[in-house]
Specification:
Layout lengths: L1 H28 L13 H19 L6 E2 L6 E2 L1 H8 L15 H27 L5 H12 L2 H5 L8 H17 L5 H13 L1 H22 L5 H21 L1 H12 L19 H5 L26 H9 L8 H19 L1 H7 L13 H20 L5 H20 L8 H20 L5 H25 L6 H22 L7 E4 L1 E2 L6 H4 L7 E2 L7 H7 L4 E2 L2 E2 L6 H6 L2 E7 L13 E2 L3 E2 L4 E6 L2 E5 L7 E3 L13 H13 L6 E4 L5 E3 L4 E6 L6 E5 L9 E4 L2 E3 L9 E5 L6 E6 L12 E5 L1 H13 L3 E2 L6 E8 L3 E8 L4 E5 L2 E3 L2 E3 L4 E6 L3 E9 L4 H34 L1
Parallel strand pairs: 3-8, 10-20
Antiparallel strand pairs: 1-2, 4-9, 5-7, 6-7, 8-12, 11-12, 13-25, 14-22, 15-16, 16-21, 17-20, 17-22, 18-19, 18-21, 23-24, 24-30, 25-29, 26-27, 26-30, 28-29
Helix pairs in contact: 1-4, 1-5, 1-19, 4-5, 4-7, 5-16, 5-19, 7-8, 7-9, 8-9, 8-10, 9-10, 9-14, 10-26, 11-26, 13-16, 13-18, 14-15, 17-18, 18-19, 24-25
Length: 870
């Protein structure tokens, strides 16, 4: 018995090791392996996840607060980010490493997840197909761990936990449905929900389908009463797992209700044709998903690639004589479920947690891949026992040949080249040949041949998919990391021991990564996150900042927004917005040549300015909490906010008269000339000027606008003794009239007076930003403290030791605090994760119940064993 156990562990370990080696080599060939001189810095991996992984590192070092971060946009609770991005047990490996090494470490985490996925499926294969040749179990494990889904979503690495835990969950579920212990099922499902609730939810939707299939198709000997009992056991075991994960699920759900779940993400873009050709594109080797940056315009469909051998084996499942008819019907109904979900908008949204995916559609496709491999296991077992109908294999080979020719003739309708179709067809025919080997004199070699074919097939597929992902340079990344570390350290040194909070603004970033505040631990106004408070993006758009429900970006700030958001430090650059390094370091969006103030430090072409005209994070309000803001009127909206807060309604800007543009270059180039200015001025352009192929220059420098802009942009220039020239060149001649270009000069003296009124009432903090802040406020009467902290139910505020109810100002976005009488007051801000304590209590209850139920199961099984002995 011990030797079998050791052999089993050795096989599982070998499956994981082999999968990791294939992935490592394939990504090296496909130029996606940072350990061999390539890079994984592409898409969300580069622009979102690396920043959050660096936040994890900052928390470990004690430089960031785990519960709340002012580096997340203007500030936000982090529980939903932890639940979505950071709670995977694999992320423990990243904790000791800083920004420079983080891409390498995350790549190793991906390798480890691929290895564990293969090991987990091999373990499941040993439980389900005990008589199957170990080489064939390895074949199944590799097909599962290196399926097309994994390679496409390798950079969405937090979703890969689903592939690691799904085989364990299914293995535990099979035990539950057999009337055995619920421990493995409840624990593995609970861990999955904690590691990533998003894909965990998709698994939860699939589990009832699988349970019904198993009870209907594979446990035909059970009576109706026993079947209902087993089904009930599955239900309460699932609820027990969810209860045990409540420490994360409850506060996360509460956070999402105030953010993502309250946002209308629109209807999904699903296939509008029933023609099968687009579906067939997903079956070909090297098929990529329809991400917004890869194959725009291609029809969005799930990628189903699990190798030619396993795909054909899954289809041959329905020809097996040893498989009962109801089992085939049940398997077909599971496929029907996936088909219906893929074409029904409401069910599609349900599978994605109620939110329409932005890029990367059909994120639950790993479940389809699992089902294909699961059915293929029965076919491989039948082949190894000489029970696979040879006629069915010959028919499959003939269909594959005809199908390959058909796809070649119709390849114009496919997202595939001729050689990809030919290679796929060749692999299909090779798969049929290998299956036929099981009934020939070469039978002893067929299992190894099957394994070798799948290794070759999946290795080529992995390399091809990886090579289609554009990547940024690791050297550029590390250079940017060094520079930002130097700049932010200089800011922290300038701030010294002064506990007053400060924010940092910059239109310089790496690629379109909006997470520098998280990476380098400073308060910012930019973030890419699925968990934004739903009011903040709307406010930012009204102020001329690019934003959507899942990101805000402070690229085109002005002297007025710098004041509003308390940007005490600003990073300026002499670079222009050229496209050559669009995916590399030091990319510039907008135009901020209006920066003034003390120069804190200079590094290369970047300079840090200390901004003297920044409003405090919190101040006793001399005016009103809100202002009427109008769409398309960004600069005036900014003025209205400062005027309402200060109570001083004197104009902060002065319009600049601009003559009609000079049109040249066949009606494609428009040039405006602005008069010389004695103060900072801002040019405002409507979104019509930011078309995809528009080229814009201001004073000879290229201007690049942050992608996805849907609001007027303000471009800032400083004092100029000479005229300012703005040139916009369109790809095509403009036939319709263009919106006017406007400009205004800042009235510097009035801006100083306005900000001084706000600074006069500043709260004086004894601690800096975090989830616990203490400040003093002096009032001459009952007053309101205005903050630029986004309102969140997690904030608990005490004034002079007494809890007060906070309010909301400026369109309900920012938190306000009432003070009832004159004098000097202590104001304490504490952030508690909403419903955290309730989640902890529920988890403790769930764990206790799991221990109790497991103990009762143990006693029951031991008693049954003793009765058998008697």
């Amino acid at each position: 018995m011990a030797s079998k156990s050791h052999a089993g562990r050795g096989e599982v370990a070998f499956a994981g090791t082999l999968a990791a080696i294939i992935y490592f080599v394939a990504t090296a060939i496909g130029h996606g392996n940072p350990l061999t001189g390539s890079s994984q810095l592409y898409g969300d991996f580069s622009n979102q996840y690396i920043g959050l992984m660096n936040f994890l590192h900052q928390v470990v070092l004690g430089r960031a607060d785990a519960a709340y971060s002012f580096g997340s946009g203007l500030g936000g609770g982090m529980i939903a980010d932890w639940a979505y991005y950071l709670l995977s047990p694999f992320n423990l490996l990243a904790m000791p490493f800083g920004p420079a090494a983080m891409p390498d470490v995350v790549y190793l985490i991906i390798c480890l997840k691929v290895a564990c996925a293969a090991a987990a499926f091999d373990w499941l294969a040993r439980q389900r197909w005990t008589r199957l040749n170990p080489a064939l179990r390895l074949t199944l494990a590799l097909g599962y761990a290196l399926m097309g889904y994994v390679m496409i979503y390798q950079r969405e690495f937090m979703w890969l936990d689903a592939l690691v835990f799904l085989p364990l969950i299914i293995g535990g579920l099979l035990r539950v449905l057999a009337g055995r212990s619920v421990a493995l099922y409840t624990v593995s499902l609970a861990v999955m929900l904690v590691a990533n609730y998003y894909v965990g939810f998709m698994i939860c939707v699939f589990l009832p389908i699988f349970a019904l299939y198993h009870l209907y198709a594979e446990q035909t000997e059970l009576t109706g009463v026993v079947t209902l009992k087993r089904l009930g056991r599955f239900i309460w075991a699932s609820l027990l797992a969810a209860l045990s994960a409540s420490i994360v699920l409850v506060p996360t759900f509460a956070s999402l209700l105030g953010g993502k779940l309250g946002v209308n993400t629109g209807q999904p873009i699903l296939p509008t044709t029933t023609h099968p050709l687009p579906v067939f594109s997903r079956l070909l080797i090297g098929a990529v998903d329809d991400h917004i940056d890869l194959h725009p315009g291609a029809l969005s469909l799930p990628t189903l690639y699990v190798s030619g051998l396993l795909l054909i084996s899954a289809l041959l499942f329905f020809t097996l004589r040893r498989i009962a008819g109801r089992q085939k019907i049940g398997a077909a109904l599971v496929f029907a479920f996936f088909l219906i979900v893929g074409f029904a908008p409401k069910l599609y949204l349900l599978m994605h947690g109620g939110a329409n995916p932005v890029g990367y559609p059909y994120r639950y496709a790993f479940l389809i891949g699992f089902w294909l491999v699961y059915l293929a296991g029965d076919t491989l077992l039948a082949a190894s026992e000489r029970r696979l109908p040879r006629n069915a294999v010959f028919s499959a080979a003939g269909i594959a040949l005809v199908f390959t020719v058909y796809l070649l003739l119709r390849r114009s309708a496919l997202d595939a080249s001729a050689w990809r179709i030919l290679l796929t067809g060749l692999l299909w025919l090779a798969a049929c040949f290998v299956l036929l080997m099981a009934a020939t004199r070469w039978r002893r070699y067929w299992a190894v041949a099957a394994l070798g074919l799948v290794v070759l097939d999946l290795g080529i597929n992995a390399a091809m998919i990886t090579s289609q992902k554009r990547t940024a340079s690791m050297s550029d990344y590390r250079q940017y990391a060094r520079q930002m570390r130097g700049l932010t350290n200089a800011i922290k040194a300038d701030a010294g021991t002064n506990p007053q909070p400060y924010r940092v603004g910059s239109n310089l970033m790496r690629g379109i990564d909006r997470g520098d505040g998280l990476t380098y631990s400073y308060a910012s106004a930019s973030i890419f996150s699925s968990n934004l408070a739903k009011g903040t993006p709307a406010l930012m758009r009204l102020l001329g900042q690019p934003s959507a429900e899942y990101y805000i970006q402070y690229s085109n700030g002005t002297a007025l927004t710098d004041a509003i958001f308390g940007m005490d430090y600003l990073i300026g650059t002499t670079r222009d917005g050229k496209q050559e390094n669009a995916r590399h370091a030091a990319q510039v969006f907008g135009y901020r040549h209006d920066l003034v103030g003390k120069k804190v430090t200079t590094s290369g072409r970047e300079t840090v300015y200390a901004n003297p005209l920044a409003a405090p994070l919190a101040f006793v309000l001399p005016g009103e909490t809100g202002a009427k803001l109008l769409g398309g009127d960004s600069l005036n909206n900014q003025s209205r906010i400062l005027q309402s807060w200060s109570g001083d309604h004197a104009a902060l800007t002065k319009p600049v008269k601009i003559a009609a543009p000079r049109v040249s270059y066949h009606g494609r180039r428009y040039t405006w000339t602005l008069p010389a200015a004695t103060a900072r001025q801002y040019v405002q352009l409507a979104p019509a000027y930011f078309a995809k192929h528009t080229h814009m220059r201001l004073n000879g420098k290229r201007v690049q606008i942050f992608p996805g802009y849907s609001t007027p942009v303000l471009l800032g220039v400083g004092k100029h003794a000479q005229a300012v020239k703005l040139t916009v060149t369109f790809k095509h001649k403009q036939k319709a009239a263009l919106p006017p270009v406007t400009a205004a000069v800042i009235r510097e003296a009035q801006l100083r007076r306005t900000v001084a009124k706000l600074q006069q009432g500043a709260l004086h903090f004894s601690t800096r930003l975090g989830s616990h802040m203490v400040a003093t406020a002096t009032t001459t009467k009952s007053a309101t403290v205005m903050t630029t902290i986004p309102a969140d139910s997690g904030w608990h505020v005490k004034v002079d030791g007494k809890r007060v109810s906070t309010g909301k100002g400026l369109r309900g976005i920012f938190m306000t605090v009432p003070i009832q009488e004159a004098g000097k007051h202590t104001v304490q801000f504490d952030y508690h994760v909403p419903y955290w304590r309730l989640g902890v209590l529920m988890t403790l209850l769930g764990i206790a119940l799991i221990v109790l139920v497991t103990h009762l199961d143990f006693l029951k099984n031991r008693g049954a064993h003793r009765r058998q002995l008697v």
